[in-house]
Design goal:
InterPro entries: Cit_transptr-like_dom, NhaD-like. By secondary structure, the chain is mainly α. The chain is built from 22 helices and no strands. The longest helix has about 35 residues, at about 65-100.
Length: about 450
């Protein structure tokens, strides 16, 4: 048996053509999820399985599959680290939702008797900062619920507020390693340190402000008529917010000081949440499960809380994760990794970062994120491993993060709000403001070159 020391070039082999076709078909099937009602994870999981099956088969025919198996395991480890990080983060968010923290925030916002223009800016700035630590879809839907609630008599406000929320969410998630899948990838692969991302704060702020200023003048000037409601937080709600902050801190310490995966710190934080739930279970009187008589919730009516045992069950929170999306990313990551191992990504990299300038390549990749998931694109570039300076990695992070704002279907918050504000916020209403969003896109790139010139 002859050991294979370097990956084989399979770009012109039957296995390469087969793998490429399978990945394209799977991605097309995922894109048409809403019309076919076929969950996007299904074709991607099948594609990843088939791609690595034929890769290992070809290597076995050549006499040694050790290199291919090692490559698969290396990419699997990358996915597992990402999965554990997201799992803990979303578990905390589900815990906060059960404690009615997000309901309380919604009620607080709609009860401030603000004008439409004030609410437009308040929701925009809140979601901009919130999305730097909270999942973009969660943050976007939270503020979208506020916009729909206060703008029930003004479809124009709802439409503009939703566009603003999407742009702000994507921009806010781009200056933090915790802001989304693509930034997590860059941090996890060590291309940028935890604090390096904050250099993108001003460019991201510009990306949000440029279209917001343009839309400001199209907003109604009057105030919405909203009935004031209250909501009662569950016992332990504020302490869970604090513990989430502690968990994020542990992730940073494990990464920067101990040089362990950030996911290890997140898992330590998950254990803290489990012990806190145990404490609440042992110290909460049974009669406190019932909501207060004067507690009113957004949407009307009294809402009975779940029984204490289920409410404080950590595995209930884990079970409610968006598993379809997480499994989709497994298929996308492993499928792209397979194409990279075959040799296709190296060929694409030579065109993008060899024949084109890195700046033009990163701008084009960012624009393509309006059509293709930015996490998938970022992993593809990381697999290409181009030799570019830190400033270009920051530029790629910026363009991929904010490029999804160009179209309503370009990001998870956009797709979520299309359903949440159905009939008021539409694909065409977003497209109408695409020119000013593009202006913000290029303005943020210009500001990045200006304020982060030393990184190039």
């Amino acid at each position: 048996m002859t050991a294979i020391l370097q990956p084989l070039d399979l770009t012109h082999n039957w296995a390469g053509y087969f793998s490429l076709a399978v990945m394209v078909i799977a991605y097309i099937a995922a894109m048409f999820e809403e019309s076919t009602h076929l969950r996007k994870s299904k074709p991607m999981l099948l594609a990843a399985g088939l791609i690595w099956f034929v890769i290992v088969l070809v290597y076995q025919e050549q006499g040694d599959d050790a290199l291919a198996v090692a490559a698969f395991k290396s990419n699997l480890q990358t996915y597992i680290e990402l999965l554990l990080f997201i799992m803990v983060s979303m578990t905390y968010l589900n815990a906060m939702e059960d404690m009615r923290i997000f309901d309380a925030l919604k009620v607080w916002l709609v009860s401030k008797n603000l004008s439409y223009r004030q609410l437009f800016w308040l929701t925009g700035f809140l979601v901009f900062f919130m999305s730097s630590v909270v999942n973009g879809l969660t943050a976007g839907l939270l503020m979208g619920a506020v916009a729909v609630a206060v703008g029930k008599d003004s479809p124009r406000f709802v439409s503009l507020a939703c566009i603003n929320i999407i742009v702000a969410t994507n921009a806010g998630g781009s200056f933090s390693p915790l802001g989304g899948i693509s930034t997590l990838f860059v941090w996890q692969h060590g291309r940028l340190g935890f604090t390096d991302f904050f250099q993108l704060f001003i460019p991201c702020l510009v990306n949000f402000l440029v279209p917001a200023l343009a839309m400001h003048f199209a907003l109604p000037k009057d105030k919405p008529d909203i009935a004031i409601r209250t909501v009662q937080l569950s016992r332990g709600a504020k302490r869970i917010i604090f513990l989430f902050g502690v968990t994020i801190g542990l992730a940073v310490i494990y990464d920067m000081k101990l040089h362990l995966p950030a996911a290890a710190g997140m898992m330590a934080g998950l254990s803290i949440l489990q012990f806190f739930y145990f404490y609440l279970q042992k110290t909460t009187p049974p009669d406190s499960q019932k909501p207060a008589d004067n507690a009113l919730f957004l949407g009307g009516g009294d809402v009975a809380l779940a029984d204490l045992a289920n409410k404080l069950d950590i595995f209930d929170k884990i079970g409610r994760l968006e598993w379809d999306t997480l499994l989709f990313f497994y298929g996308a990551m492993m499928g792209i990794a397979g194409l990279g191992f075959i040799g296709y990504l190296e060929a694409i990299s030579q065109v993008l970062f060899g024949q084109l300038s890195p700046t033009l390549a990163n701008i084009l990749i960012g624009l393509s994120s309006a059509f293709v998931d930015n996490g998938t694109l970022m992993f593809a570039v990381l697999t290409m491993n181009p030799d570019i300076p830190q400033g270009q990695w920051l530029l790629l992070t910026l363009t991929l993060g904010v490029g999804g704002s160009l179209l309503a279907i370009g990001s998870a918050p956009g797709i979520g709000l299309l359903g949440q504000a159905k009939g008021q916020y539409t694909f065409s209403s977003h497209l109408k403001w695409c020119p000013v969003i593009i202006l913000g896109y290029f303005a943020s790139i210009g500001v990045h070159f200006l304020v982060n010139a030393k990184s190039f």
